[in-house]
Amino acid sequence: MSGAYRYLTRLDEYSILVLGLDGSGKTTLLEKLKHTYNGVPGMDPAKIQPTVGVNMAKIRIQKCLLKFLDLGGQSDLRSIWESYFEDAHAILYVVDASNAKRMDEAKSVLLWLTRVAELDGIPILVLANKQDTTDIQQVAQVKEMINSIADCLDTRDVRVMGGSGIQGTGVCEAVDWLFSRIMENKK
Q1: What residue numbers does the annotated binding site cover?
Q2: CB atoms within 10 A of CB 141
């Protein structure tokens, strides 16, 4: 009976990698996800330290469990990303839209991700984060960055959205898009 119960109540699980440069707001965004979908009070953004390793959040949508894996973005930690690629179903690539000086580096890392064989064909959502600050790159400028590497994206699903990990703006829209693309790829 317990085996039948587990089978009937099991959830399909999908992994979403939350990637981006250090300081882009990945962990703050993850904390907002936990709060929005699970009702768990998020960590105070002022107390969030740079991620060394992995942070995780799981949210339930319909009969699915989305597992968000926030991986440290410092250049010397990016080598651990590769150990998570094989099981990834989508990428949430977070860009600090308030830091124009690191836009070329963010573009370079994203370009590298598009060339990784294990990630071929999985959807990528580029979130222009920190839209709550006054000194931001507009979403259109981040789209220009994506358009400049469009030839490397092939037929991959890619979307650029604006958002704020602190305010939660765009969080639900991002999750909805990722979920819909994962379900579409499942077909």
Answers
A1: 20-27, 51, 73, 129-132
A2: 15
Write out the chain's pLDDT in tens, 187 residues: 666 666 666 789 999 999 999 999 999 999 999 999 999 887 887 888 888 889 999 999 988 999 999 999 998 889 999 999 999 999 999 999 888 899 999 999 999 999 999 999 899 999 999 888 766 667 777 888 888 777 777 778 889 999 999 999 999 999 999 999 999 987 6
The tokens of 20 are what?
């981006």
Q: Does residue 93 contact residue 124 with C-beta atoms inside 8 Å?
A: yes
146 within some domain: yes
Which CATH number belongs to the domain containing residue 38 in this structure?
Answer: 3.40.50.300
Q: Would you list which residues are annotated within the binding site for GTP?
A: 20-27, 73, 129-132
Domain containing residue 149: 7-186
**Residue whose structure tokens are 């990834």:** 88
pTM of the model: 0.90
